[in-house]
Amino acid sequence: MLTLNAAAASVADQLAATAEMHRVTVHTVGGARVIDCGAVARGGLSAGVMLARVCLGDRGTVEIVPGVFAEVPTAAVQVWTDDPVRACLASQYAGWRVKAGRFFAMGSGPMRALAAREELYQQIPGKEECVHAVGVLEAGMLPTAEVIIAIVEKLPITAEKLTLLVAPASSLAGSIQVVARTVETAMHKLHELKFDVTQVVAGHGVAPLPPIAADDLAAIGRTNDAILYGGRVTLWVDCEDSVIESIGPQVPASASRDYGAPFAEIFARAGDFYQIDPLLFSPAEISFVNLRSGRAYVYGELNPRLLRKSFFEG
Q: Which end of the chain is more exposed for a tag (fewer CB within 10 A), N or C?
């Protein structure tokens, strides 16, 4: 089986080879390959799907599907995976804060598994070795050579073996990449609640694709709201029913003290992203299907009122 980085590199190669078709541009910065999927380039739906696949280390399927959210027919982002720990936690989770000079971006993708510097990798499988490193930066500008140096310093490869894909949440591709995190948010919430995530066998999630916002802050608000108030996740697990019954009510976003307003308002009230209750970041509704007992459970519910307020009244 290919490593997460090798699989993601193959997707990145396909994207670069058909850059014009996907409306992306390919650059060389500090020796690294940088694929602009929405910072300056237009990008689009197909670029967003491939960007999300790279985030997952290509261990998941990402599709644009029809849906009805907030009583309005709209496109939705669907994702499913048979390897949720590696795909979502070891790769997709945005656990790398990339900072260099005045540049800042949340880093995700399988380059995290190659660096394996986060404490998370002491608790889950996923740390790997590979001759390539592939990452995704949520940013509205391309990284500089200084940024490339800062990233490569934490990796066992040279800049020439690094590929970075870049897009802000205020782009079409970037918004798809964020909304494709339904299963990832559920997995991370379970991990924070001390659930043994290796007992999750498979995951499926879907959430509405919000209108593209005019600025990054509004875009971050809408894409988060898509998951917090419109995300629906199903996890297939193998554990005791009593474990699900105990932890299930704590998993939906509604279990957080910060739940109940559009994310942009929550962010403004907190004044700092890291002052927001970390347990807020999870889907609106989550179902558990227990393969051991044959029982199914559902917790939380969609919130059409807040989706409508975020998407159409903000």
A: N
